[in-house]
Design goal:
Helix content: under 10%
Shape: elongated
Structural class: mainly beta
Strand content: 35-45%
Radius of gyration: 27 Å
Oligomer: single chain
Order of helices and strands: EEEEEEEEEEEEEEEHEHEHEEEEE
Distance between the termini: 87 Å
Largest sheet: 5 strands, antiparallel
Length: about 350
């Protein structure tokens, strides 16, 4: 595994093994999903794609793809951030060929339609350890990686990958090229991004669209956060997940600037986690307590960001809309006039 892995990252294994023998998903580090498996159909090479949502403890560890018998093989592992957070959003296809010096990744049309996505094309070859010679590996794809098992002639499985970011209804990657004819199992994987699937958070409540300075001082105003395309984690020690998760929701309600007696210092940083309620799977409310020391010389614009730790599927924080504004109340005339009796 990569040296650094963060909770809810996507971990992917691409595996090529000599012969068409079936592969079995790893059982190390948790429950892996076999996203796809295919072979050349000629007995020389098989390829598989495996995925797991990270616990955050996998860094530097190993995971083993197993086969029915002892075989040479090569694998690559990737850590992906900014994905949708749902393994079911990963889709793949694979084609097999008995021979050739150039083959393209399999055509793929994701079921969720046209969205921003990460596309990874892979070429598994066997049996003579032929390196990819095309440059770039595949047209319009970057960061080509070519991994050999080193077993040599008539014994090897080799894997090459490359990726691109693309908003498209389908993708049919171009050719990988090698020097001499081999058997191939070529495939394409699409990773749905964290901005996909209609993910959104909306802000309503008495704080919308504006609050006055005195209303903040008095307390009792609310913001209501409503999710689309995701849900809040269940209550734990806090109203939403752990106490730290609940605190992170408060911490995500921030002003752009931090004057000494402004929102960030006097409201956000002094709010208690008891002010947060989980009203339903998709709705949470913060009822702000009184902030007697709040005082600003200019309006403050407040943005609500829902932390990933408070969400069930999303791997990235979700910025809610719209923002709201706290309006400062200008000081009155300093002179006092009294009428004579």
């Amino acid at each position: 595994m990569p040296a650094t892995v963060t909770t809810d990252d996507l971990l992917l294994i691409f595996m090529a093994t000599y012969t068409d023998a079936a592969q079995t998903a790893p059982t190390d580090l948790g429950t892996w999903t076999q996203v796809h498996q295919g072979n050349s159909g000629s007995g020389f090479v098989a390829g598989g794609i495996y995925a797991i949502k990270a616990a955050g403890t996998e860094g530097g560890s190993t995971a083993n793809v197993t086969t029915a018998s002892s075989l040479a093989g090569a694998g690559q592992c990737f850590r992906i951030t900014g994905w949708s957070g749902t393994i079911a959003d990963l889709e793949a296809s694979m084609d097999g060929y008995s021979s050739g010096t150039a083959r393209s990744g399999s055509s793929l049309t994701p079921s969720w339609g046209q969205e921003d996505a990460l596309w990874i094309t892979m070429a598994n070859t066997g049996d003579d350890d032929q390196a990819v010679t095309s440059s770039p590996f595949v047209a319009n794809y970057t960061d080509g990686a070519d991994t050999a098992c080193g077993a040599g002639s008539n014994a090897s499985g080799r894997i090459a990958t490359a990726h691109r970011e693309l908003n498209a209804t389908s993708e049919d990657p171009g050719n990988f090229t090698i020097a001499s004819s081999e058997a191939w199992a070529v495939g394409t994987l699409v990773v749905r991004t964290g901005s996909a699937g209609g993910l959104a958070a909306a802000v309503t409540g008495t704080a919308q669209p504006t609050l006055t300075e005195s209303e903040v001082v008095s307390g009792g105003e609310t913001i209501i956060i409503t999710l689309t395309g995701d849900t809040f984690v269940a209550a734990g020690a806090g109203a939403i997940g752990s106490e730290a998760d609940t605190q992170a929701i408060i911490d995500g309600v921030s002003a752009a600037a931090s004057p000494a007696n402004g929102w960030n210092n006097e409201v956000r940083d002094k709010e208690v986690i008891g002010s947060v309620s989980r009203d339903s799977d998709t709705q949470a409310t913060i009822t702000w307590t009184a902030a007697a020391a709040y005082s600003v010389a200019a309006d403050e614009t407040i943005t609500v960001t829902v932390p990933a730790a408070a969400l069930v599927t999303s791997a990235s924080p979700l910025t809610a809309t719209p923002t709201f504004v706290v309006t400062n109340e200008a000081a009155g005339n300093p002179w006092n006039y009294y009428a004579a009796a």
